[in-house]
Amino acid sequence: MRALSLFTLATLAVPGVLSTGTNDQVGPNLDYGTFQDPSSAVRPRFRYWVNDASMNLSVLVEDVRSIGRAGAGGIELLGYYLYGDSSAYGGGNAAPLQTDWTVYGFGGAPWKEMVDTILEVAKEDKLVIDFANGPNQGAGVPAPYNSDGLLWDLAAYNSTFSSSKGFKGTLPGWGSGRFVAATTGTVKSSTASEAVLYESSLQDVTSKVSSDGSLNIKATSKSEGTESLVFAYYLIHSRYREAPSPTDPSIATAVPQSPITTYSQNGSWVVDHWSAAGAQTVANFWKESILDSEIGQLLREVGNYLWEDSQEYSVATFWTPDLQKKFLSNRGYSINKYIPLVVGSGGTTSNITYVTDESDAGASHIVDYQQTLTELNAEYLDALTEWSNDLGVQFSAQVVYNLPMDMLANVPHVNAPECETLGFSENIDGYRQFSGPANIAGKRVISSEAGAMFGEAYQEPISELLWTFKRSFAGSVNNFIIHGFPNSGNYPNTSWPGFTTFMYEFSAMHGPRQPAFAFYSDFLNWVSRNQFILQTGIPKVDVAFWSKSTTYKSISTSYAPVDLQEAGYTYEYLSPDNFALPEAYVSDATFAPNRQAFKALVVRSNETLTALGVDKLVQYAHAGLPIVFPGGLPSNFSGYAPAAATKAVQSLNSIKSLKNVHLVKADGLADTLDSLNILPRSSVSANGTWYTLWREDAANAKSYIYVYNDATGLPFEEGMKSGTVSFENTGVPFFYDAWSGEVTQISSYTQSKTHTTIPLQLAGNQTVIIGFEKNAKSNVHIQDITIPVLPTTSDSNSLTVLRSFDQKSREITLSTGKKVSLSPMSTKPFTLGSWDLEIESWTPLPDFYDAEGATRTNQTFHIPSLIPWNQISHTLANVSGIGYYTTTFTWPPASSSRVSGAFIDLGSITHTARVMINGHHVPTLDISWARADIGSFLRHGKNTLEVVVSTTLGNVLRTYWDELEISGKLASAVVADPPAEEDYGLIYPVQVIPYRKDKAL
């Protein structure tokens, strides 16, 4: 076995940091560390899965410490509990319980000991810890059966009667639950799946129901055969499980389960997400079962977030005891007679859908119901946030999406709103929808559960993981919880490579089972430095889009044209509900001047109006904010409020004549904004799609701009793009290299009185951070930004240009005004060949059920050129592990002219790679374009290049696919086919690119 120490760079020491406290706003008094070495508080964390509380504490301690050593800031502890309810994914993932969950369930004594252990080791290692509120997805906790704080549902019944005869009898379903309402209505028409009700026939007869459930309704029609219905609704508990009861007869068990003596041993129930009572149920359980004085103190010291996952539970109809009261108060009419329209809204399909004969089929009443759910859910989120803050930590949640509510309205109601790469489909427009409300609310952190890919449990390469990060950063996400890190210890009836969540359906299983884990610090430090920058200062955004929706069951693109993006405009979305926030005001014709400082507000003709939103819009217009109406004024109104809708349209018409209000054509928005002199802060001119994101650190007179070259789906050669970006800033520009941590002054740019224009060449999906410092002294720099020269070095009095192969003479102009002639550089790049490759293959230990390690065997190959491992030999098709490449070359090249040094260029790296030249470590490589200056490491004569790469475990799992077992269940029972064969190793030719140093000044 070849030692890894040669290629293991020292992990940066994480500065001391304790809890981030309860201040969730930008600019907190928080130890950020430095750009070179960010603190734990701003580093990414891993979701750390333990299947139950039976985990070996020694393994747990080592896992947490290894996560810190790898460069993460801590963990998010999540009790997986076989993904909670056995009905998940239709029950296909259900596996037998391997331990006694009466003992090892969430919140029991072993769980509490595990929490205490994690907090202690986090304190020792200066890490921060997040805790899921409950098991599985954190949406529930153990609670007494039928507690009022648990998730509710409506039991719906109906009975047909003749309109000409009336109804006399007991309500259908009487006694099935707490009586909520009764309604009658007459059917206009029907099919097998839908019935249309006369709106005028709907009657709320709740008050006419006697205490014994009897109802007497007189005939409403003289026509024989006219069909009417009486609807009856009852409040019941959904009994949706967040973790199963260990004694549930439908749950398979491999070991006996102890008798249940308290509710805390009886699994977990999803709590009511539409009342403070649901939040109180969570708080009560923590107080009774987990929190003591010691854990409470440790939580204040190293705790970060209490957290809840996305809402993925289902009921027939979302309901809570106070819904009728809230609806009447906020909507101005009773929901009772419209309940037939909303039954089935919770995801459990009803047999028939009811609509009305209104012009919108009754949709306005459904919208009112969804808006009321939104407001009730805000009360739940507010209560959890307040409770978390009382404990000295913050509350984070994946807000609303998957449910029929206004996501944008409720994002501000938690300390750290979280989205996800999977549910948002890596859609930058979707992230902008989520981040707009968070940014105007001043949230320091917009988090994301990142890296979950369907079907890639052990196949997701680091390049793909970082692709999801880069797109998220472009959408203003600035914190990642990496999905995920399973406990690395052995688990009963679980084979190598160890406990695997979701039965191999989702990526990724990070940790020591992965050959790449020893190299994770390379990319985790890159993520950390990006998060350091993107959590600094305040985001500045060019344009706000009005966006009102009361359902976000999925996240789709809201603005599909690419014209804004191509011109460099940044934009976010706001619900008019967000206009009630303190910073949503206009000053100096700028919207939210202390937050995004939007230059314009765009309201499209198909948007939905609200009374509050239009009132605010009129205020903004009179305050001078440019408001653009592409396609004309909208007229659709949210919910049922005819008078308010009429007033809203009148109000919009009243501002049409203002000089800052613009009714324009529907398309060509970028050109329209340009014609109105509403210009982007970063104007892009490139032959690719570049995204920018701006952070303003006014306190330190600095600005930071993140630039991302989106080359999704393009091969490496086609993804390389070049162009310029003109920034609305005249400070001194710097490159912030998130891979190396180096900050260097940019040496090629031009400046006007208002802008700085910088040339860039970016590989596919490569990013760069540019910083401007108002108080820095500018070095000498090149002003001819179209001249092809390599990076230069400069100070205030001198400048040196690096010239690679170029057969033309060039003349450059310096910022001093001096013109300098550069002679041709005739030494060409050359490709390295004749490689020795040693492959360390990782396979199971002799005991296939011992997952705490791997057997490592080595094979050696000589290859004339670089090709994927599976093309070197058929024996390598199903091999995963670590590859050690070695070759030599002579320096300087025999046919060279004067040369000063060289770059090494490995092209694009799929997973990880580290390089040594003559025994010297080359600084960490950007895997999107693995290129580095090796001039200082070269010596005359023979030079030795060593490259170490790693792979995922996907290929080796192919050999063992039918044997892999998790908690007594075969992986192949869930995922029938083994992973597809992947190309491993160095894929692209490795080039040495000589350069000559020309002193220009």
UniProtKB/TrEMBL annotation:
It comes from the Eukaryota. The keyword Signal applies. Residues 1-19 form the signal peptide. This is Secreted protein. Keywords: Signal. InterPro entries: Galactose-bd-like_sf, Ulvan_degrading_GH. Pfam families: Glyco_hydro_106 (PF17132). It comes from Penicillium frequentans.
